[in-house]
Write a structure and sequence with these properties.
Layout (H helix, E strand, L loop, with lengths): L18 H4 L7 E10 L5 E4 L4 H10 L8 E2 L7 E7 L10 E6 L2 E6 L2 H14 L7 E9 L5 E7 L7 H13 L4 E5 L1 E2 L2 E2 L8 H4 L8 E2 L8 E2 L10 H13 L3 E8 L4 H6 L27 H17 L4 E5 L6 H5 L1 H9 L5 H18 L3 E5 L12 E4 L4 H8 L4 E3 L2 H4 L22 H5 L10 H4 L2 E8 L7 H8 L2 H10 L8 H17 L14
Parallel strand pairs: 2-3, 2-4, 4-6, 8-9, 8-19, 9-14, 14-15, 15-16, 16-17, 17-18, 18-19
Antiparallel strand pairs: 1-7, 5-6, 5-7, 10-11, 12-13
This protein binds acetamide (ACM).
Length: 529
């Protein structure tokens, strides 16, 4: 057990120390500085009690050249430099940790592996980016504000290769983010191998061409390069294992009943018309949606069956956004289906469709999550809502006793521009979300009771990739805004200091991103005021 003194709560500053301590991102919950420092030397010992041994081993590689000593399996030992303890009886929360640095050594304690992992992330930030081995003495008690700290990445509009997916997950974990919402399907490309429906990737993963310039420009112009790519089930298993080691849960998204043009191109019987379709070559919202027949419901449940085998997390995202109902209004079969089911509107028909997926997921012990349109057709039992069209849906969901994740366009759509001077920026979809706006984001809508507010699980960034053709461009749009969001979601609201204080820490933090080869947007771009 680590002796733990009553901590002093500090507002984003640690007095008496220079950069490394000040530059923790996200800021920790409680930090008490002490005098002196601990120095890593060749031969510094690392020890761990048995349950913490594996994570201790990963610490050795994670801390790089700062730590070269042998690893002891158990027992703190008099000369041990750094000791990790996993103690389920410590009274700490599942993601909490305590970290004590004294001249004699470093002690890290948690009740669960996630807590140890986050303690190790903090410790690695306490070491200067250059990797010299001095850590200032201090005492930290830390835990997150929210359990859902995430980022969504769209790999349909532009396919992102597996090595980048791994790098992105690693970057999430280093910022103590724990949820990767993987948007795997959309009109422009189907990116997940489904063994029972091979045409989904054979046909659905490749579009013939891609729009040049912005979707608003007329006339539209296209390149003549097919764009494709998908993840095999084996690759997905590897990504899931990699994420699990970093305490990142993957929430796969199969977006339905809209955003399905690629799937309907592969299996026309899923659609409402005889029109021959292809994966879409430009952006915007396709009019083509799934038909509401029993065979289509079974098909999608078959897709989910394989998704469940690949992704062990509780949540499966079924989209539900922007499903244009025009084809259902025009289709005699869809209208008959509505009557048969005794439904009064196309919205209710979508509610029924999503309800079928909900029943399927619940019967297998999983939880459905969908974009906030799933509120419009009547929220199915136990469903969780990703609130994107503002936070009104988050409020409504919480009032109804449903869990919700805050992902509003105004603060978390990282496909929006980072400068008002758009001519100086790479082409983006529009909008304007500077770093300061992300840092000011409050995920809990006003007016909720404390009990209702507990339904707000947290928040996440959105990286829609229409205008992000490469991993480099994703990094440019994601960072450093994700650093700000990580602090919003981890650090107690009352400890969020001024933006200037955050920015000062961020300047040091960017050296870490440099070391990791991240193509972030520099803070002081030429021409910025
Ligand atoms: C969305 O932006 N269509 C969820």
């Amino acid at each position: 057990m680590i002796p733990f003194r009553q901590p002093l709560v500090l507002r984003g500053f640690v007095f008496g120390y220079d950069e490394p301590v000040n530059a923790l991102i996200p800021q920790v919950k409680q930090l008490e500085p002490r005098s002196g420092h601990f120095e890593f030397r060749p031969g510094t010992r690392l020890s761990a009690n048995a349950p913490a041994f594996d994570i201790a081993r990963s610490l050795v590689s994670g801390l790089g050249n700062a730590l070269q000593g042998p690893l002891e399996a158990s027992g703190a030992g008099a000369e041990a430099g750094i000791h990790l303890g996993l103690d389920p009886a410590s009274g700490l929360g599942p993601e909490a940790y305590r970290l004590e640095v004294t001249p004699a050594g470093i002690e890290l304690e948690a009740a669960a592996e996630a807590g140890l992992f986050y303690g190790v992330q903090t410790l690695s930030q306490l070491l200067p980016a250059e990797g010299t081995g001095v850590v200032p003495c201090l005492s930290i008690h830390d835990e997150p504000r929210f359990p859902w700290r995430g980022a969504m990445l769209d790999v349909s509009r532009h396919f992102m290769p597996k090595p980048f997916i791994l790098k992105f997950i690693d970057l999430l974990a280093r910022h103590k983010l724990n949820t990767f919402h993987w948007h795997l399907t959309d009109d422009q490309g189907w990116r997940i191998e489904i063994k029972r429906y091979p045409r989904l990737t054979e046909v659905g993963s490749v579009r013939a061409c891609t729009l040049i310039g912005h979707d608003r420009q007329r006339p539209r112009r296209y390149d003549d390069t097919p764009h494709g790519g998908y993840y095999t089930q084996e690759e997905i298993r590897e990504v899931v294992r990699y994420a699990a080691k970093r305490h990142v849960t993957i929430v796969p998204e199969i977006d339905m009943p809209g955003h399905m043009q690629a799937a309907i191109s592969a299996y026309p019987e899923l659609g409402n018309t005889d029109m021959k379709l292809q994966p879409r070559c430009h952006w915007g919202i396709s009019q083509h949606i799934l038909n509401p027949q029993a065979g289509t419901v079974r098909f999608m449940q078959g897709v989910l069956e394989e998704v469940l085998e690949l992704f062990p997390g509780s949540f499966v995202h079924v989209g539900g956004d922007e499903a244009v109902k025009h084809e259902w209004q025009e289709s005699r079969a869809a209208q008959e289906r509505m009557q048969e089911l005794g439904l009064q509107s196309e919205e209710a028909l979508q509610g029924w469709f999503i309800g079928q997926m909900n029943d399927f997921l619940r019967s297998r012990g999983r939880r459905l999550i969908g974009w906030d349109e799933i509120l419009d057709g009547g929220l199915p039992a136990g469903a969780t809502v990703t609130s994107w069209r503002g936070l009104d849906a988050a409020r409504r969901a919480a009032e109804l006793g449903h869990d919700t994740v805050s992902a509003p366009t105004a603060c978390t759509y990282f496909d929006y521009y980072q400068s008002e001077d758009v001519a100086s920026e790479p082409l983006a979809i529009g909008g304007f979300i500077p770093l300061e706006k992300v840092y000011a984001f409050e995920p809990v809508p006003e007016g909720l009771s404390a009990e209702q507010a507990r339904h707000v699980l947290g928040g996440q960034a959105q990286l829609w990739t229409e205008y992000m053709p490469s991993p480099d461009q994703v990094e440019y749009m994601a960072f450093p805004r994700l650093c700000a969001l990580a602090e919003v979601l981890w650090t107690p609201a009352e400890l969020r200091g001024s933006f200037a204080a955050f920015e000062a820490r961020l300047r040091s933090h960017l050296k870490r991103l440099d070391a990791l080869g991240v193509n972030y947007r520099p803070l002081d771009r030429p021409g910025e005021t």
